[in-house]
Predict the structure.
Amino acid sequence: MRFTLLTSLVGLVVGAYAQSSAADAYVASESPIAKQGVLNNIGPDGSKAHGAKAGIVVASPSTSNPNYLYTWTRDSSLVFKLLIDQFASGEDTSLRGLIDDFTSAEAILQQVPNPSGTVSTGGLGEPKFNIDETAFTDAWGRPQRDGPALRATAIIRYANWLLDNGNTTYVSNTLWPVIQLDLDYVANNWNQSTFDLWEEINSSSFFTTAVQHRALREGATFASRIGQSSVVSGYTTQANNLLCFLQSYWNPSGGYVTANTGGGRSGKDANTVLTSIHTFDPAAGCDAATFQPCSDKALSNLKVYVDAFRSIYTINSGIASNAAVATGRYPEDSYQGGNPWYLTTSAVAEQLYDALYVWDQLGALNVTSTSLAFFQQFSSGISTGTYPASSSTYATLTSAIRTFADGFLAVNAKYTPADGGLAEQYSRNDGTPLSAVDLTWSYAAALTAFAAREGKTYGSWGAAGLTVPASCSGSGGATVAVTFNVQATTVFGENIYITGSVAALQNWSPDNALILSAANYPTWSITVNLPANTVVQYKYIRKFNGQVTWESDPNNQITTPSGGSFTQNDVWR
Ligand SMILES: *[C@@H]1O[C@H](CO)[C@@H](O)[C@H](O)[C@H]1NC(C)=O
Ligand SMILES: *[C@@H]1O[C@H](CO)[C@@H](O)[C@H](O)[C@H]1NC(C)=O
Ligand SMILES: *[C@@H]1O[C@H](CO)[C@@H](O)[C@H](O)[C@H]1NC(C)=O
Ligand SMILES: *[C@@H]1O[C@H](CO)[C@@H](O)[C@H](O)[C@H]1NC(C)=O
């Protein structure tokens, strides 16, 4: 017995050491390759960007199966956010010319009439252009409304640096008009349907909503800083509406974020992890309203997302259920064979490094009922509570989580070819690189994860201390916070649930019914956001020893008001 325990402890320590040293080695070898890989794909001088205009980011030099010799607003903006962070933090002061090329190229693209419209009729939502700055006119999933938001975020970051360095004229005369077009577009169109970041689903997308929220929030502060006060309250109003709408993607019974509002899929999607890292604000603590990397919701979501890939990829078989695996866009994916992606697997590591950074800053971590399953992966006996940095539990958990994070980099390292080239995907069966070669976003994602591993952060955007409005407006689906109170006596171990006629009440599903709190027993309570101005039918149910008992007929019914909150008091029937 003692021998077994000792052996398994040694095994754990050796395993942890192997993960971390593999990650160390990968960071050392891949960093310069990834940086060069990004620069090679930027015109006019990048060695793999022939034909691209100055400042244009080529998604990949691949010209067939798939042809990615285009420039996407989303990819370009994420890539330049990385380069601007490196420039503004002083890590690489040589990038200024390239950054100026980028902002000039984007100013040109904004004005190119395209199938989504002109600059004033929706053209800013066009997802991609030819690399000579002409419109791409074939059929495509358009519009994609995350692009203008991400572009505004990147350029605002640069503009703030210029202001810090006394260059107000260039910011006000040259950059602000570009930024304002994007922010106005977001403020006016955020509640319209959009194709998601994978260009497949036309509905509302969590990633898009979240990056739009960030752009308007920091856009309002930035506009104020340069004296453009007339736009501030409009941006702030829509930012509040976006923050409210953002909450509706959370699936409380599944413990994860549903990535898109349309689509007939599980909703488990790298979209959500990418949201956490690209809206990370190191000053916002573990706030769940903005799904910060260390928030209980984002951690619960991370576990559900990662677990969705454990059994579907051959290369993940035989890996312990609490160890790192290769992950892809979403489990139902079939594009190019539906394989793991480098950028999604590194995003998991990045979220975890961001979380470790914040816990370290705050000097504690919280385990809540929402994040319990995530933490149980690292300590099966853990219970909810606050663990200060001085506690041994904190040390055990954070060390195991760092090893877990390093494991995702080690998985990518294992399937990175000897020359360090990063394609888009690698085979689910044997790890061979697949799909587009030299994907700019793969390189950029490696670099942002490596920076997070080193504890580097790049400033706040205003996510700290936000309050979610009590009722949402403007989302085409205003909601009302409805509190259900029901008086019901129960036996020990028996619980009361609610389900009903709308999605927020789990569409009459007894399996997914929402559990009520017995904090004020014998009154059981729950508050749920329901659609406004809507007739909603519902019933309470009891669950005891696996047995479900419904209330007697007929169904209960309420009509929700147009806004605000509402309380419904019932007695079990
Ligand atoms: C302000 O920044 C722009 C962009 O880099 C540059 O072209 C311009 O020379 C700068 N102006 C001053 C006064 O430094
Ligand atoms: C996307 O969905 C909206 C709303 O349902 C619809 O009006 C629009 O035509 C759709 N776009 C495409 C390209 O299917
Ligand atoms: C833990 O939760 C408490 C109460 O909600 C909160 O005040 C504190 O900031 C949280 N700490 C961390 C590290 O998340
Ligand atoms: C979208 O938001 C605008 C305000 O920006 C509002 O006038 C409009 O009614 C909203 N549309 C829907 C469908 O809620």
Notes: Residues 188, 191, 474-476 surround 2-acetamido-2-deoxy-beta-D-glucopyranose (ligand 4) (CB under 6 Å). The CA atoms of residues 330 and 392 lie 36 Å apart. The domain at 2-135+144-453 is CATH 1.50.10.10 (Glycosyltransferase). The first strand starts at residue 70 and ends at 72.
